[in-house]
Amino acid sequence: MGNKIISMMKKDRKDGSKSMRMNRSQRKLLADEEMLHRRALSMAIRQTQLSQRFDRSMSRRAGSTSTRKQRTLSDPFSNGKQVPDFSLESLTVKKFVLVHGEGFGAWCWYKIVASLEDSGLSPITVDLTGAGFNMTDTNTVSTLEEYSKPLIEYLENLPKEEKVILVGHSTGGASISYALERFPDKISKAIYLCATMVSSGQRPFDVFSEELGSVERFMKESQFVIYGNGKDKPPTGFMFEKQRMKGLYFNQSPNKDIALAMISMRPVPLGPMMEKVSLTAERYGKGRRFYVQTLDDLALSPDVQEKLVRENSPEGVFKIKGSDHSPFFSKPQSLHKILLEIAQIP
């Protein structure tokens, strides 16, 4: 009986030690995430201050006008599992260029940047024209070429033999399609993250028509459009009010990331959204495209995403359960795992 009690005490101590180690590991993960979030929040506050100074300056100067392979993944963050069978040495392309969607900026990728760097990869983020820290007035951005200029300039300056993996979120999909058309030999793979993977002749806005209505109706009736050149001129941009934004983009995201987004989102230039994309089979068509679907998305419904991959079939399709339109917030570990899986596809 005494031996049995001693054995049970040893087992309890062992289990307790294991539990303490797990708790320490989980606390470290949470502390690391908190530190990253504070850093991103600090950057966002600085961006807001810069934007406010810019807006006041503009106001003084311009007046007051203002067979597909499919996988379904859940988020492993809760149990701390690492991505299995990942070999950094096996990758020929280690650089990811992360391209944000409408209203967002490079700031939205902060969790993905950290996880890719931890995996030994080289993530690069860009602020498209009029987004994030790019202080261009969004009312002056009228074409997809202008909007995508920071991405295009980055690709132009790549060493001749170097390739990258592009990741485009939401309307950032149009920018990476434009880049594929311009630089098919510099892009190893293009990953569309709940994105506007449109066919040639389509507009990025067309993808959102189920939620926002027709172009004509949106331009005439929407309360969210911005008339930067005056009410007698065509609208130049749009921005949802905060509650609508939360419902569309962040229905599964943590509150602290929603708070970050609320002080960081900027108006969306309307011109690039309304421009018909011109793509050719000889250039865009030779690119390797992959699509990541988000299954709890209220901005771009799973049915619309399924239609996109059916009409413009990519090489592979991946799905994330429980993700809203911002998987870099709501399911960062699942997204990280998928990016590594795609990177390893020969």
TrEMBL record:
MF GO annotations: carboxylic ester hydrolase activity
Domain AB hydrolase-1: residue ranges: 96-333
Positions of the UniProt region annotated as Disordered: 1-25, 51-79
Alphabetical keyword list: Hydrolase
Signal peptide: none
Ranges of biased composition (kind: Basic and acidic residues): 9-18
Name under which the protein is recorded: AB hydrolase-1 domain-containing protein
Keyword Ribonucleoprotein applies: no
SUPFAM superfamilies for the chain: alpha/beta-Hydrolases (SSF53474)
Membrane-crossing segments per the record: none
Compositional bias segments (type: Polar residues): 62-79
Superkingdom classification of source: Eukaryota
InterPro entries in the record: AB_hydrolase_1, AB_hydrolase_fold, MES/HNL
